[in-house]
Write a structure and sequence with these properties.
Elements (H helix, E strand, L loop, with lengths): L2 E7 L10 H8 L3 E6 L5 H14 L6 E6 L11 H25 L5 E6 L9 H8 L5 E6 L4 H9 L11 E4 H7 L5 E4 L14 E6 L7 E6 H19 L4 E6 L2
Parallel strand pairs: 1-4, 1-5, 2-3, 2-4, 6-7
Antiparallel strand pairs: 7-10, 8-9, 8-10
């Protein structure tokens, strides 16, 4: 007998983004594993619980909250940074493996609910690959609506220019490499778009799909400072922020 794990993409915040495939996986799950990331992220756990309450037809499932191992904060994109991330993933894998063995029966079904889509800037799959070397499990992946899809839908824009590619990158990479074409930027804590030419078009969104959703569009010269201020205010108000934006050169 082998324990089964679902990695379920639950979309960017709106419960209506949850797919029929995800609903089936939710109803197949006995134990949902979540990470304790501190009080500031409690509302993310609450949203996961709301999704389960809405879509799971029979009671009996339960949540198991796992303590998130500490992560060393070092200079990004340095060798020390990559080691720190690898060490953090290894520590997480140990916590997950222990919980799966303890909380699931030999043929039990557990799940991790991934914000957005598990394939995009999410560590769940990398960590489970490590867990699978230590614990007898199989796992499948249910894709979800990404923040990128939610962003372009809310702004009612195509992701790409006709026949042109789109880069998905981070704020650090944007600042280091500059902008040469359309780019989606994620994980940008420092508003790297302000280094782009003022005529650069930007479509920005935060807390996409939630009641706290924020949207701004325009040129970097016209709305860049407004975005930076709104982002800072929202982060101070909520204790966290998830934002994404699309850039397109003039």
């Amino acid at each position: 007998m082998t324990r089964r794990i679902h990695v379920i993409g639950i979309g960017a915040g709106d419960p209506d983004y949850v797919t029929a495939q995800a609903v089936a996986a939710l109803n197949d799950t006995e134990v949902f594993f979540t990470m304790d990331k501190g009080d500031s992220k409690d509302d993310l756990v609450a949203l996961r619980r709301q999704i389960c309450d809405r879509f799971i037809r029979e009671p009996g499932y339960r949540f198991v909250t796992l303590a998130d191992p500490p992560r060393d904060r070092v200079v990004p994109d340095s060798p020390a940074y990559r080691r720190a991330v690898a060490d953090w993933h290894t520590a997480r894998a140990r916590v997950w493996a222990s919980a799966i063995e303890t909380e699931l029966g030999a043929d039990g079904v557990g799940a991790f609910l991934a914000w957005g889509d598990p394939s995009l800037y999410d560590s769940t799959l990398r960590i489970l690959q490590t867990v699978a070397r230590e614990v007898d499990i199989t796992y499948d992946v249910i894709p979800g609506i990404t923040a990128i899809q939610a962003l372009t839908a809310r702004h009612r824009i195509p992701l790409n220019d006709v026949g042109e590619p789109v880069l998905i990158t981070t704020g650090r990479q944007l600042r280091q490499q500059g902008l040469s074409g359309s780019a989606v930027v994620m994980l940008d804590a420092d508003c790297a778009f302000r280094d782009c030419p003022p005529a650069t078009r930007i479509w920005w969104g935060a807390y996409l799909g939630t009641p706290d959703e924020l949207l701004i569009a325009g040129t970097v010269g016209d709305v860049g400072d407004q975005i930076a201020q709104m982002r800072a205010d929202a982060r101070a108000r909520h204790g966290w922020i998830m934002d994404t934006y699309l850039l397109r050169p003039a």
